[in-house]
Design brief:
Blueprint (H helix, E strand, L loop, with lengths): L10 E4 L3 H12 L5 E4 L9 H4 L3 E2 L6 H15 L1 H5 L10 E5 L2 H16 L5 E4 H8 L9 E5 L3 E2 L2 H14 L3 E3 L4 E7 L2 E7 L2 E4 L3 E3 L6 H6 L7 E10 L11 E4 L4 E6 L2 E6 L14 H14 L8 E11 L6 E4 L5 E5 L5 H18 L28
Parallel strand pairs: 1-2, 1-12, 2-8, 4-14, 12-19
Antiparallel strand pairs: 3-7, 4-6, 5-6, 9-10, 10-11, 13-16, 13-17, 14-15, 15-16, 18-19
The structure holds flavin-adenine dinucleotide.
């Protein structure tokens, strides 16, 4: 039986991807009574979350992103204990391969910072990189780094885990519910309008991912979050891939490979892609991607394509998310993860629930992720974005 839209709520969350699902669960867990989660598609997790490559990592170049991972990745480890559904984690390690001097300089500093914060990333010379990357070829590798605790998890399992657990705690999770507007009562939020009717509430969380600009505009806010297409493909089975094959990233080309079932999942970011909501596969970019992928991993030339996927990153000017309060009373945002939001879904849902239920975050100071940072011209950009 589909869940009906309640008439009132203590908090309404817009968007049922990993952010919305995690926020709904953590709000219920924090004791908020009437939590309502609205998703316009027939199923939860079919936006960016369901199209993502599933990578989870500690290797970032800003302290805030590393700290988010330090809380979020253990939450994924504990997901089954917490909710009854496993995140299906595979700790294959992320191997960044560096072929440009400038990246070597950046990553050396990054690894130092990670180590200082207690993250056990290892610096590698070119020979070690070549050995670990096989059957990829990197004659031009200058150096690299690996963190063996990085790896992969399953986005659909994580979303189901949080949705099911939120429902058990009393949340109303409604699909095929397109949010069309927000009603204000002076300076306060009064209700959320949808194709199924309206729900009165004082608190709204905008977790609409690549589509989060529009709900913000309904309350008069300009959110610097833009949708940007990214795509990947999975090959047919390849027998020569060692079980230890890590998540390999050719950083200079934004080209990556990891095992996916019996095949290889590979993606490559198009630096000329324009902002927009097109989620179809770009066949010309795929051709270019395959050519570059075969140069690195010649084995791919002898195999077919089994599946392909395109989706949207939700990109901010500094490649950091926007999480927290806004100038509009009762309107919160959790968006703008710029290509690495799946792995930070658990912690960000929890942080938002702390903010809403207690007025401040206690697990981590996230004031630097607030919307008002864009008024400042000195943004601290995350370099380690693929
Ligand atoms: C190709 C690709 C690869 C990626 N790889 C990784 C990776 O390896 N690791 C990683 O951590 N991250 C990765 N990401 C990024 C990650 O997927 C996102 O950062 C994350 O999933 C964002 O989650 P979200 O819940 O904010 O957004 P979404 O999952 O997009 O959820 C937003 C939801 O809001 C709904 N919605 C929008 N408007 C409305 C409305 N008006 N009414 C009701 N519902 C609405 C949408 O239907 C959608 O379901 C990748 C992304 C892509 C596209």
């Amino acid at each position: 039986m589909p869940t009906r839209l309640p008439a009132t709520a203590d908090a309404v969350i817009l968007g049922g991807g990993v952010m919305g699902a995690s926020t709904a669960y953590h709000l219920c867990k924090a004791g908020i009574q009437k939590v309502v989660l609205l998703e316009r598609e027939p199923f939860f997790g079919t936006g960016a979350t369901g199209r993502c490559a599933g990578g989870i990592r500690y290797q970032f170049n800003t302290e805030i992103n590393i700290r988010l991972s330090q809380i979020s990745l253990p939450m994924l480890d504990a997901l089954e204990e917490e909710t009854g559904i496993s995140a299906l984690i595979r700790k294959c390690g992320y191997l960044f391969v560096l072929t440009r001097e400038i990246d070597v300089e950046h990553f050396q500093k990054t690894v130092e910072l990670q180590n200082r914060l207690g993250v056990s990333t290892e610096w590698l010379d070119s020979q070690e990189v070549r050995k670990l990357a096989q059957p990829c070829f990197f004659e031009d590798a200058l150096a690299g780094c690996i963190n063996r605790e990085d790896g992969l998890a399953d986005p659909h399992s994580v979303v189901s885990a949080y949705i099911n657990a939120a429902k058990r705690l009393g949340a109303s999770c409604v699909t095929e519910c397109n949010v069309t507007g927000i009603e204000m009562d002076g300076e306060h939020i009064a209700a959320v309008q949808t194709n199924q009717g309206s729900v009165s509430t004082r608190i709204v969380v905008n977790a609409c991912g690549p589509w989060s600009q529009k709900p913000a505009s309904w309350v008069g806010l300009e959110l610097p979050v833009k949708p940007l297409r990214r795509q990947w493909l999975v090959t047919e089975g390849i027998t020569a891939i060692p079980e230890s094959f890590p998540f390999v990233i050719d950083f200079a080309q934004s080209l990556y490979f990891h095992s996916e079932g019996p095949g290889i999942l590979t993606g490559m970011s198009n630096p000329h892609e324009r902002f927009g909501e097109d989620q179809s596969i770009d066949p010309l970019w795929e051709e270019n991607h395959i050519e570059k992928a075969i140069q690195r991993m010649p084995l791919l030339g002898a195999t077919g394509i089994k599946a392909r996927q395109a989706g949207l990153y939700e990109v901010t000017p500094d490649a950091h998310p926007i999480v927290g309060k806004t100038p509009v009373d009762g309107f919160y945002v959790v968006t703008g993860f710029s290509g690495h939001g799946f792995m930070h879904g658990p912690v960000c849902g929890m942080l938002l629930s702390e903010l809403i239920s207690e007025g401040h975050t206690k697990s981590l100071d996230i004031s630097e992720l607030e919307l008002d940072r864009f008024e400042n011209s000195q943004l601290n950009r995350e370099y380690n974005v693929i």
